Amino acid sequence: MVPIFQRMIVGNDSSNYRNRHGFTSxxxxxxxxxxxxxxxxxxxxxxxxxxxxxxxxALSRRNxxxxxxxxxxxxxxxxxxxxxxLAPFRGVRYHLSDFTGQGxxxxxxxxxxxxxxxxxRNAVERLFGIFKSRFTIFKTAPPFPFKIQAELVLACAxxxxxxxxxxxxxxxxxxxxxxxxxxxxxEEDDDFEILSEIQEQQRENAxxxxxxxxxxxxxxxxxxxxNMH
Length: 229
Fold this sequence. Notes:
Keywords: Hydrolase, Metal-binding, Nuclease, Nucleus. The protein is mainly α and 229 residues long. It has one domain. It is globular and about 55 Å long. The termini are far apart.
């Protein structure tokens, strides 16, 4: 969520831009790599827009988000588990802090999957921490027309990528964006869209892949534990 000035919103009704935290914002969808670089940014959506709706828009655009063949993106629980977008198991421990401390190791296949998922997806939280430390204008609502505010996100994302490539020693203290992470993980809009039969089958296939992956991970851990005894 990026704060915006309410009076900068075009139109008479700004309620669509008011997010679940009660302030006006734009919702920004990003994809990143493990080098903490943006590979896709879609800005300008209303703060109240559901993540799954924004993702659908990103995939439908002519120059939208592309998923390489045979690959997938890790997403949080704000998104449904679907083809090429792998979400964690809901109702199961997920955040890294949930597994910190003695005796808090994963106890089931689903918990192990979620732990490893969280380790990898932590890259996007670190990216936003660096991004907001570097471009402090996004900590408050910038006093520009909304269109400029949306474009400002894109411009700064490009600058961030340049600095990551050319000035790797120019590091910033990371401020983990935990509020957004916790809020998005707590809510999924399963009823946003009416799924076609094909989409339903794709969701089922994605769930089967996730279950299979979790089972294989757990089996590998059992093999290692047995070899240690």
